[in-house]
Specification:
The structure is a single chain. The chain is an alpha+beta fold and about 400 residues long. Strands 1-2-4-3 form a four-stranded antiparallel sheet. Strands 5-6 form a two-stranded antiparallel ribbon.
């Protein structure tokens, strides 16, 4: 059976696909920015959802914002629009496929939204801060445990802030840096009117810099001169070399146990193409790797293994990839189908050397080589491989 031919080559299809993703990302970011601006300038006196008056009527954007604000409140609505903007930025940076299970992020966002609505509804007296949903939660909690309404609300607010920071990639160091910058700018503006002294980190003395730099340069020179005068037997051991921390290196985004929707779609296509050659079965396992992914295929009884090996080239053409490796998995009843990922991922060195298997290894000279097809890190003892040193 002939494989399906495409009108455009693979390179042009990938370019058009990237352009399509970028355009969607730009649209999503623009929509989120527009919604955030419209939220801050929302006029509650105009006629809209749940509001009737003679001062004018909202446009469609105002009606949408009024409806969401009525249901969940101002702060959860702002969080929702910020998550929408972050999703658009991830599309623009081509990180949507590298993230660990996008549906997991959607679930975390929904849970964070529920915590925010419930917490804001509980800490307000009438439950109006969390919208209509917050008022419902407030009424239920008051009827069940009226003495613990405020502690439960504070707990929900803390969980909401924690999950929001995780989703939006906001760290405590970022907030501290922003607060310091705002404070320094405020002091500098006040110093212009002679209301306070200017901050030290903005106006620095050049003489202090000149005094500090020579000290750092002179000290090592003096130590070297002292060591040159001493013999080899009296070498000082006061200074011990400390390895730099692994945090200086970049960390990988690859997750060995993360099965993305792309892998599931590939598994479905494998089953369909095998059925075209009268081979029936199903994919029962997926082992993602940074470059190659292994699919475990359970064949129907009576299907010969040699038939799979004969179809390796035909399946490669059908799946649109360069090469497919098909072989039985040792110690298992499944057939292993190894395919190259459409978007290979790079394994960064920090992920490998931060693994407890490397840190607690008993090797004389541990050597980190990378990961295998299943994503497991591979370590060897260089002391047992002298041919590698030559």
């Amino acid at each position: 059976m002939k494989a399906k031919e495409s009108f455009l080559p693979q390179s042009m299809r990938s370019v058009f696909h990237e352009i399509y993703i970028y355009l969607i990302g730009i649209c999503v970011v623009c929509v989120s920015v527009w919604l955030i601006i419209a939220l801050f300038f929302y006029n509650s006196t105009l006629s809209g959802f749940g509001i009737f008056g003679t001062f004018g009527e909202h446009y469609y954007t105002g009606k949408i914002i009024g409806f969401i604000k009525y249901v969940i409140g101002f702060i959860p609505e702002l969080f929702l629009f910020m998550c929408l903007g972050r999703f658009g930025l991830s599309l623009l940076s081509s990180n949507i496929t590298k993230e660990s299970a996008p549906e997991y992020n959607f679930l975390r966002g929904f849970v964070a939204l529920c915590f925010g609505v419930s917490g804001l509804g509980l800490i307000s007296k009438s439950g109006c801060w969390g919208g209509y949903a917050g008022a419902v939660v407030y009424a239920d909690i008051v009827s069940l445990v009226p003495k613990f309404v405020l502690p439960i609300g504070i707990l929900f607010i803390v969980l909401f802030v924690w999950l929001s920071a995780k989703l939006l990639h906001i760290k405590l160091s970022h907030l501290i840096a922003i607060s310091k910058t705002v404070w320094n700018i405020t002091k500098w503006v006040l110093s212009v009117f002679h209301l306070t002294t200017p901050p030290e980190n903005i106006i620095s003395k050049p003489d202090e810099v000149e005094d500090i730099v020579p000290e750092k340069i002179i000290k090592p020179l003096r130590r070297r001169k002292k060591r040159n005068t001493e013999t080899e037997q009296t070498i000082s051991t006061d200074f011990e070399y400390e390895l730099p921390p692994p945090e200086l290196l970049e960390k990988s985004d690859f997750g060995k146990n993360v099965v993305t929707p792309e892998f599931r779609q590939t598994a479905i296509l494998l089953q369909e193409h095998f059925e075209e050659y009268n081979i029936f079965g199903k994919v029962v396992g997926i082992k993602p790797g940074p470059i190659v992914t292994q699919y475990e295929f359970e064949r129907e009884p009576g299907t010969r293994v040699a038939k799979f090996e004969e179809l390796s080239r035909d399946m490669a053409l059908a799946m649109g990839t360069e090469k497919i490796r098909i072989s039985p998995i040792s110690g298992s009843i499944y057939i292993g189908i190894e395919m190259r990922n459409r978007q290979p991922q790079t394994i960064k060195y920090q992920t490998i050397i931060s693994n407890p298997s490397f840190v607690d290894s008993k090797f004389s000279i541990p050597l980190a080589l990378g990961v295998n097809i299943s994503g497991e890190p591979m370590y060897y003892d260089l002391a047992k491989m002298p041919h590698m040193l030559i």
